[in-house]
Amino acid sequence: MKSKLIQAAIDSKEKAYAPYSKFNVGAALLTTDNEIFTGANVENASYSLTMCAERIAVYKAVVAGKKKYKSVAIAGNTDEPLAPCGACRQVLAELCGSDLDVIMISRTGDTKKVKLNELLPYSFKSIHLKNNNE
Ligand code: THU
């Protein structure tokens, strides 16, 4: 049986606004107090303004005042479980931490679970900003 988190990510694909790519993505973020925040990709005719599903989910959680997370699930209509893009990996690393479980989901519901650290080792962090050029 699918977990509530995985089902929430799959269901969220239907909420995507993706008239240009026609590539729907759903995401669901689980907080340490077991609340789920969902997201879906939202595109724009000015393509670069597009926002990914994962970032919408985590930004919603941050603004709701939730700051600690266990895992994120990402669902796409792909043959292989869908991995988050590089930009989302960076945002998740900052806001969720490298220990976050990332559950990737395929079209058929196959899953693959990894730690964020496996997807983005050596991430750029705020501490690096201390070594500035002044
Ligand atoms: N997309 C996501 O929502 N998350 C990802 O991690 C990969 C890409 C969206 C952005 C765009 O709307 C569409 O997928 C095609 O790139």
Topology, please?
Blueprint: H1 4-12, E1 25-31, E2 36-40, H2 53-63, E3 69-76, H3 86-96, E4 101-105, E5 111-115, H4 116-119
Parallel strand pairs: 3-4
Antiparallel strand pairs: 1-2, 1-3, 4-5
Helix pairs in contact: 2-3
Overview features:
134 residues, binds tetrahydrodeoxyuridine, alpha+beta, 4 helices, 5-stranded mixed beta sheet, single chain, 26% helix, 22% strand
Low-confidence stretches: none
Please write the string of helix (H) and strand (E) elements. HEEHEHEEH
Bound molecules: tetrahydrodeoxyuridine
Which structural class do you get from the secondary structure elements?
alpha+beta
Give the strand order, joined by hyphens, for the main sheet.
2-1-3-4-5
Give the overall shape, derived from the CA principal axes.
Answer: globular
Strand content: 15-25%
Radius of gyration: 15 Å
Counting H and I runs of at least 4 residues, what is the number of helices? 4
Residues in helices, as a percent range: 25-40%
Average pLDDT score = 96
Please summarize the sheet with the most strands: 5 strands, mixed
Annotation, overall tally of beta strands: 5
* CA(first)-CA(last) distance: 56 Å
Describe this structure in words.
There is one protein chain. This protein has 134 residues and is of the alpha+beta class. Helix 2 (53-63) packs parallel to helix 3 (86-96). The protein has helices at 4-12, 53-63, 86-96, 116-119, and strands at 25-31, 36-40, 69-76, 101-105, 111-115. It is globular. The chain is built from four helices and five strands; from the N terminus they run H-E-E-H-E-H-E-E-H. The longest helix has 11 residues, at 53-63. The mean pLDDT is 96. Helices cover 26% and strands 22% of the residues. A five-stranded mixed beta sheet has the order 2-1-3-4-5. The structure holds tetrahydrodeoxyuridine. Residues 18, 21, 23, 25, 41, 43, 50, 52-54, 84-85, 88 line the site of tetrahydrodeoxyuridine.
